[in-house]
UniProtKB/TrEMBL annotation:
PROSITE patterns: AMIDASES. This is Glutamyl-tRNA(Gln) amidotransferase subunit A. It comes from the Bacteria. It is an enzyme of class 6 (ligase). It comes from Dactylosporangium roseum. Allows the formation of correctly charged Gln-tRNA(Gln) through the transamidation of misacylated Glu-tRNA(Gln) in organisms which lack glutaminyl-tRNA synthetase. The reaction takes place in the presence of glutamine and ATP through an activated gamma-phospho-Glu-tRNA(Gln). The active site is at K52, S127, S151.
Length: 452
């Protein structure tokens, strides 16, 4: 049924870069066969899922939205993929994204944009717009996203779906094509909070293949979501981040945010205002740290190891072939970031830029720690604006970067954060963001499920 739905709506949505019809049917039959034999299968066995194209899938094309990886079929599965398969989930295909997960609208995909199912003249968010749109358009009940600066939460907010960024290190990065390794975090996209928690429980937990993976079990996110769904939040302290209570946001987003807070208070939550003065430096710090790490990570795309090779006709030196390949294979936003990151890391500038940004990161972490001394979770809008029209922010990178104003702090800190639908503004979805301390992912699920 989901494959039929994909076939029916893809011309309008373009959520998928690759649909693996045969693989999906085979995986579904394997689950049926297990059930027929009376074998134990997990709670998500047989459930279709879409996977962001930045996660490697053995034998199934994986491009990260880039021409430089066109035609590449990974020889191995990411840990996320392995866990999905082991739990019996049925992978429908790979979803569209901004190239190498750099962007907030999916317009920087080398394969054309994804369209927001609510209004196809608007963006579905990014970088994981394909995953969010697939879920919103009922092409898949679940999807995998990755969040480096907001790429799960912002697409969830603008498509009226649920998206969670787990604690950094709570989900494995093994087999995730690296953008900014100290920030990259895979996580669940779903239509309900409980669905997101069920998927989180399947993909989360320690992985010895990832040196930054936390050697602890996943908190009881499913139990927390079910507890929240009872609608009782008594004793829960919500920290309203003063700096994010509306500054820079559209009035309709602020109104939806206030209504959601009132709804949570009616369920018994207490409200405290917290001040996080360093959050205003999060965006500039992120746009030094993420490009710096990306300039190093993307060095591997040299025209030798994977995918595209340009100019290898005997007329060019090895260095020229690398340069021609990277020029042809990378899009403008990726080039901008590689150049920015190379500059920020170069001798003489390192302390002034990268070093300063790392200090800001420490200050942001301290703001979170102080706030969690008086509040159990922090709340803010997910993104300052509703889905914007396609093309309206591509000519000014700064306007695009602003989409992540509220999501980036939790990436720099490493704690979990979720976006949950929080009403409409001008007929378009708005998201509420709930942030929790590291390894307290269960708390955000409880509050999010109560709002639902
Ligand atoms: N939009 C942000 C960026 O362009 C975040 C991306 C992400 O989370 N992958 O870097």
């Amino acid at each position: 049924a989901h494959l039929d739905r994909v076939a029916a709506v893809e011309a309008k949505v373009n959520a998928f870069l690759h649909v693996d019809r045969d693989g999906a049917l085979e995986a579904a039959k394997a689950v049926d066969a297990k059930r027929a034999k009376g074998e134990e299968v997990g709670p998500l066995a047989g459930v279709p899922i879409a996977v962001k194209d930045v996660i490697t899938t053995k034998g199934v094309p994986t491009t990260a939205g880039s021409k430089i990886l066109e035609g590449w079929r990974p020889p191995y599965d990411a840990t996320i993929t392995t866990r999905l398969r082991a739990a019996g989930l049925v992978m429908l295909g790979k979803t569209n994204m901004d190239e190498f997960a750099m962007g907030s609208s999916t317009e920087y995909s080398a394969y054309g944009p994804t369209y927001n199912p609510w209004d196809t003249s608007r963006i579905p968010g990014g970088s994981g717009g394909g995953s969010a749109a697939a879920v919103a358009a009922y092409e898949a009940p679940l999807a995998i996203g990755t969040d480096t600066g907001g790429s799960i939460r912002q697409p969830a907010a603008v498509t009226g779906t649920v998206g969670a960024k787990p604690t950094y290190g709570g989900t494995s990065r093994y087999g995730l094509i690296a953008f900014s390794s100290s920030l990259d975090t895979p996580g669940p996209c779903a239509r309900t909070v409980e669905d997101a928690a069920l998927l989180h429980a399947v993909i989360g937990g320690h992985d010895p293949m990832d040196s930054t993976s936390i050697p602890q079990p996943v908190p009881d996110v499913v139990g927390a979501a079910r507890l929240g769904a009872t609608g009782d939040l008594s004793g829960v302290r919500l920290g309203l981040v003063k700096e994010f209570a509306g500054e820079g946001a559209e009035p309709g987003v602020v109104a939806a945010y206030r209504e959601s807070i009132e709804a949570l208070v009616k369920l018994g939550a207490e409200v405290v205002e917290v001040s996080c003065p360093s959050f205003k430096f999060a965006l500039p710090a992120y746009y030094l740290i993420a490009p710096s790490e990306c300039s190093s990570n993307l060095a591997r795309f040299d025209g030798v190891r994977y995918g595209l090779r340009t100019g290898d006709n005997g007329e060019h030196s090895l260095e020229e072939v690398m340069s021609l390949t990277r020029d042809a294979g990378f899009g403008p936003e990726v080039k901008r970031r590689v150049i920015l990151g190379t500059y920020a890391l170069s001798a003489g500038y390192y302390d002034a830029y990268y070093g300063q940004a790392q200090k800001v990161r420490t200050l942001i972490t301290r703001d979170f720690q102080a706030a969690f001394g008086v509040a159990d979770v922090l709340v803010a809008p997910t993104t300052p604006f509703v889905a914007f029209p396609l093309g309206s922010r591509t000519s000014d990178p700064y306007q695009m970067y602003l989409a992540d104003l509220y999501t980036i702090p939790s990436n720099l800190y490493g704690g979990p954060a979720i976006s949950v639908p929080s009403g409409l503004s001008e007929g378009l979805p708005v998201g509420l963001q709930i942030m929790a301390p590291t390894m307290a992912d269960d708390r955000m699920y409880r509050v999010a499920a109560a709002l639902e």
